[in-house]
Amino acid sequence: MDRNSVISARQVQGLIADGHTIVIYNGHVLQLDSWLHKHPGGLLPIAHMVGRDATNEINAYHLPKTQRLMKAYRIAKVKLPWTNLTPPIRSNDCCVRGEWQEEKTVAPTDDDDSDWSSSTLPTSTELVSEKVPEVLTTAFDNDTDKGTCVPIVGSERISGIKDEEQGSICEVACTLRKRPSRTEYIASLEQDEIDSDMLDYPSLDFETQEAISKEYGALHERIKKEGFYQCRYSEYGKDAIRWGILFSGFLGFLYAEWYITSAVFLGMFWQQIMFVAHDAGHRGITGNFVADTLIGAFVADFCCGLSIGWWKSSHNVHHLITNMPEHDPDLQNVPIFSTSPSYFRSLLSSFYNFTFVWDAAADVMVRYQKWTYYPVMALARFNLYFLSWCHLMSPRSKNLGSAAWTRPVEIAMMACYWALFGYGLVWRTLPDWPTRVAFVLTSHIATMLLHVQITLSHWGMPTADLGPSESFPQRQLRTTMDIDCPPWLDFLHGGLQFQAIHHLFPRVPRHNLRGVQGLVRVFCEKTQIKYRCYGFVEGNHVMLSRLEEVTKMAETLLKCQLHMAKTGDSGLH
């Protein structure tokens, strides 16, 4: 195939159906089959770009030197503008085994703008009226004579009905009204969220999203020209003073046998220094892959006992498909937490190759997620240890192509961490078991702010998938919030308070994100995309409100199921 020939969308679809890894970049068709298993970032980030114009994503995540390497994989050109396809990994029947495997799909017709379409199921506002008689007498299903339950959406109240009567409405509706199945009801909740986002954000028509992408490209160029990609090493000098004070406090109080106070200083040291690992993981310090990887491994693996490889593996995917329940590992916390009604139907995670089953445990634990959030965040570090070792023992850590050398380096550094912390400090230095337990718990709880900050910017935001026509910048801003704080508190949040800006420009060093904020605000005004920025307290309220909203949805579904079980007709199945 001639690299300069222009091929049609149907031909691209045919190549993908034949199992080729095809990505569009700057109007060129890239066939990445031979690069797939060499990619230092793993297979999944590429898998989520198959059939899409990934120009914005490639430019955002890769240095100019890496972008120039893309020329070697060109096989043809396409006519621009390009209409995105749904990657095979996101198809409903795609099955993942260990690492991503492409599924052959039937190509849509040339007349289709995309192979995604909105569900035609009724929304919850159509299913639920403000008056009880209308709830009981509308939207009958002509395909069956058997009445089934229409649950009331948990976040909605029916006007004119007393609070104590709200619960019984579901029972009446279950008995007298025809309704979709459990799966269709969950789909209606998902459709509600899609409809809400469609109203709150710019249109998904091609012209609007293309204009947004062009504005984003112009902003990206301006950020490069104004030097925001240049790391300010002097800021790390200031940070180093803070790290030194915290680590010295840990050692000093340990020597004085003020063990709990020492543990607090150690936890604060961990919390502060992990921001460096985040910078290094995005190649935001030196820009050199080897150097930044070694910095990240020293900080994360050696100093904190956490795998930088695991973090990069999940974080790369999280950045590309933010807040997609089936694909974003940062949202996949069932049965402890659920931030989307999509989990009610049990989801196969394309990242973990594991089905998050909605069962009785989820019914119970999600009911209290608003109250368990902070206690779980206080102990979240223990889960990160587990995930780190799982990653290093998995095939995923071996399948990194040119970055395969990182696995033995990480194992060695994490072994050093446990030798120093686990054996040298906890076992040999601390005098007895009560002190050891108290020290470990206190030091780990002291890192709690880091875990809250990580989840805060996404868990309260939309999880609806608006389809492949949504542009990269709009999705990042729609699914991410920023946290407002005075400049003198920036060190406490470590740049993670600028998550929306960071998601737009992940390689911009964190010390420059505040400077980029003003430019992003102007961009949002031009494109009419909402820029959500809340104070820390307000942001927590938004996130907790979302957890409560999903809890009510789950409770409504459970009540209806229990009622139908008592009447002898499950109704929801």
From TrEMBL:
GO BP field: sphingolipid metabolic process
Pfam families with a match to the protein in the record: Cyt-b5 (PF00173), FA_desaturase (PF00487)
GO MF term list: metal ion binding; oxidoreductase activity, acting on paired donors, with oxidation of a pair of donors resulting in the reduction of molecular oxygen to two molecules of water
Region annotation (Disordered) ranges: 104-124
Instruction: Give UniProt keywords alphabetically.
Output: Heme, Iron, Lipid metabolism, Membrane, Metal-binding, Oxidoreductase, Sphingolipid metabolism, Transmembrane, Transmembrane helix
PANTHER family found in the cross-reference section: DELTA 8-(E)-SPHINGOLIPID DESATURASE, FATTY ACID DESATURASE 2
The protein's name: Delta 8-(E)-sphingolipid desaturase
